[in-house]
Amino acid sequence: MKRSTWPLIVLTGAVGFFLGLVAVRSDRGEVHPGQLRLPSSGPALVVQASPSSVATNTSAADFASVAARLNSAVVNVDAAIRGDARGRTQTEWRRDMADDPTVPREGTGSGFIIDPAGYILTNFHVIDGADRLTVTLGDGRAFKAEVAGVDPAMDVALLKIDSAGSLPVAVLGDSAKLRVGQWVCAIGNPLGYVHSVTVGVVSFLGRKLFDQTLDAYIQTDAAISLGNSGGPLIDADGRVIGITTAISSQAANIGFAIPISQVVAILPQLRERGRVSRGFVDVSVTRVTPTIERALGLTVDRGALIQSVGPDSTADRAGLRAYDVIVAVDGTSIQSDEDLIRQLAARAPGTATSLDVVREDGRQTVTVKLTERPVPVSAQGRMRKSDARQAAGREQGPLGLTVRDLDPASAFRKALPDSIVGVVVVDVDPAGPARLARLRPGQVILEVNRRGTPTAAAFQALVMSLKPGEAAAAMVYDPITDQRNLVAIIPDRRE
Asked: Which of 64, 141, 209, 440 has its CA 20 to 30 A from that of 102?
């Protein structure tokens, strides 16, 4: 080989090396779902995807388009409670003025519209104990929301708002078809940052957190923070497959969502009855494992093994006893204790249900009348409101405040400018519309919807002339800051 050819060979090799680096970097710049190592119930499995399927998966996970379509259906849920909010364990409450004992505790969460008529899904813990709920849409419109139904056991709440026009809707999907490793995104209001979008994968299905017999949470590494609660978890097709509910305090980017299929199953009861009733048999059950099967000499390798029976319960009176193995409900095969609980919970209390039971002396059928599944004390919530608090709110009118005339003596004492003519705010409902608009005693309302309010009578006449749902734009003078501020107040519906 000639000596003069060596530089050319070296240059060619160097160019090839650097081109190879560029190719490797560009290939590693995008991770495809088909190249991920997916956890499963069995051994770890590396899924190899063909180039064509990779391209399909990548184009399907276009969450920019998904967010653009779904954002308008995602709402902010603000909750206010009168008085003390101590004892709350699930909702983060804050005070906007720490030195004012009349200021309500406020919590914030997310939700999403599922019906153009104004039905909204969120978490129960977002609205738990609230005296007032305000839903704000993506376009800035705000509505007072009413609770249509709650299911504390599953941590689900159904809200209702009244809107003059049709509302954008989030399409519900089928969480039963989810797979570990599937791409998902979450939209919500974490830490007050409205309409934030995060993306991740489903990292586990069927996670148990609070109620070991009912929970089947979707675990995801899509970032979920305080304020995301009640928002949608969405698949790559833009369908809601879960309600984001909880986060792990011990690890980063581990969040949990209620499977939407579980929620869809209870929606009819929430809308029609306002609560959910589930069938129940007062027995403690466990899964039949190979170890238990060998230790007890069982003749079946599946089903729900009864550990104990409630004394003088319908199960006791029906003849169920410890070490019975329930293998079928009304002819439907039972594989585990969870399977049994789901089957019973899907039936109405009072239903006569046939259970196929395996005992040492053979197989037999036992008919038991279902009772209503009790709600755990930890999930019962505090949705009760006192009549006195509600009456006080009604006395303060649809804006939730009381005013009086601004007499010359008061104006002199407050050192108000001569140009200030209006009514003085003397009391504000801690969970009313005026408080949400940040009005407080001592401020002076000068105008409502551009019309002067020189007297309390004039102010009341303007307020009562507002149409249902019509906002009031109030020009307010604050003596503390010596400034005028225009605030929007959404009046309560008059009953």
From this structure: 141
